[in-house]
Amino acid sequence: MFQMDLLKGRTILITGGGTGLGRSMALRFAELGANLFLIGRREEPLAKTCEEIRAKEIRAAYVSCDVRDFAAVENAIAVAEKEFGRVDTLVNNAAGNFIARTEKLSPNAFNSVMGIVLQGTFHCTLALARKWIAAKQPGNILNIVTTYAAANSGSGFVVPSACAKAGVLAMTRSLAVEWARYRIRMNAIAPGPFPTEGAWSRLMPAKELEERARQNHPMKRFGRHEELANLAAFLLSDLSEYINGECVVIDGGLWLRGAGEFNDFVDFPEAAWDVLESARKK
Ligand code: HXC
Ligand code: NAP
Question: What is the C-alpha separation between 220 and 224, in angstroms, rounded?
């Protein structure tokens, strides 16, 4: 679908780029010609993903960095600039999340997720956009949120994440307008369930939960990483230059299944439909 040089000449910074969806995006963007700079806290997955990218003869580098620390983010960007000259694209993908009854949370548990997701996104966005604006150069930002942010529904049992992701979506829509005059675009993707070690170990820790989630899905399957990575590539590319402030849901229809009042009818057996339809004929 894409020309293989779609992202050629770009340098893309991905937060949380060593694992899960961040890693899959990094590998796909590399195939499409971009240089990659990855940040995260743990060095090992960052180094491993960079090696995989370099094996494709694409430039990649990383630095260990906690996005909650603004000075560390500024330092990481300085390292990226030393390596590549300039970073022109940012993917705010790093996140923290866990399932918990909210009344059991400590204030620090709430702060921890808000710090990674909302402040971390702001830190990376601010540090790069200041540079782009000062240099009068365009920029491109993609934020990874969730369907409970996109649907404006929130979600019980993941309240810190629901609050933080809603904030990221508000930031996306606000800055899309405020910074359009600087040729900075900002969009979001709201993924449904995509199997990753990070998300599954915290949110889907038992096989039964996983199977229940699959059975409740309208398409009876989870997302494939390449589906999300291709959408991200499109939204970052010049093919989508007029898309700004948008949040694209990629969940196979999952959140809508819970929203429509009669959607549970998908589980009706044939016999139940026979009864319903014969009642109409009377
Ligand atoms: C309640 C918890 C908790 C849990 C940690 N805490 N885990 N509280 N239930 N399961 C509390 C701790 O007790 C502590 O509070 C505070 O949170 C900070 O914990 P630390 O372990 O010190 O924090 P830190 O090392 O910064 O780790 C952050 C983390 C961790 C969010 C807690 O899980 C992490 O590093 N996650 C990164 C990766 C991740 O979460 N990936 C999944 C993204 S999936 P006290 O008061 O004791 O100090 C995703 C999908 C969404 O977002 C949509 C799915 C459909
Ligand atoms: P993941 O592999 O756990 O990704 C989270 C990444 O963020 C990790 O690489 C982690 O690396 C990094 N990170 C966490 N805290 C950080 C911090 N303080 N500073 C820097 N980096 C930090 O999980 P994933 O499923 O791929 O999630 C990726 C994104 O997709 C997240 O935004 C998530 O909310 C979103 N999402 C995922 C799903 C899904 O089903 N998988 C659904 C909806 C939304 P370190 O721990 O090494 O720092």
Answer: 13
Tell whether the model's pLDDT for residue 98 goes beyond 90: yes
Rounded to an integer, what distance in angstroms lies between the CA atom of residue 181 and that of residue 59?
A: 31
C-alpha span between 149 and 46 (Å, rounded): 28
Q: Which CATH class is domain 11-281?
A: alpha beta
pTM: 0.97
Q: How far is the CA of 70 from the centre of ligand 2 (A)?
A: 18
Q: Specify the pLDDT at position 201.
A: 96
Are 168 and 92 spatial neighbours (Cβ–Cβ below 8 Å)? yes
Q: Are 173 and 245 in contact (CB under 8 A)?
A: yes
Q: Where are the domains of the chain?
A: 11-281
Quote the CA–CA distance of 81 and 128 in Å, as a whole number: 11
Mutate to test the pocket of ligand 1, among 39, 42, 68, 97 (most ligand atoms within 8 A of CB): 97
Residue 132's Cβ-side half-sphere holds a number of Cα atoms within 13 Å equal to 22
β-bridge mates for residue 38, sequence order: 14, 62
The residues facing 35 across adjacent strands are: 11
- Pick the closest to residue 257 from 210, 217, 213, 215 (CA basis): 217
Secondary structure letter of residue 224 according to DSSP: P
Ligand 1: atom nearest CA of 202 is 42
Number of the ligand 2 atom closest to the C-alpha atom of 116: 18
- Is residue 223 lining ligand 2, measured as CB closer than 6 Å? no
Q: For 141-162, how does the pLDDT look when each residue is reduced to its tens digit (9 = 90+)? A: 999 999 999 999 999 999 999 9
Residue 132 near residue 139, CB atoms below 8 Å = yes
Question: Which of 191, 195, 189 lies closest to 213 in space, CA to CA?
Answer: 195
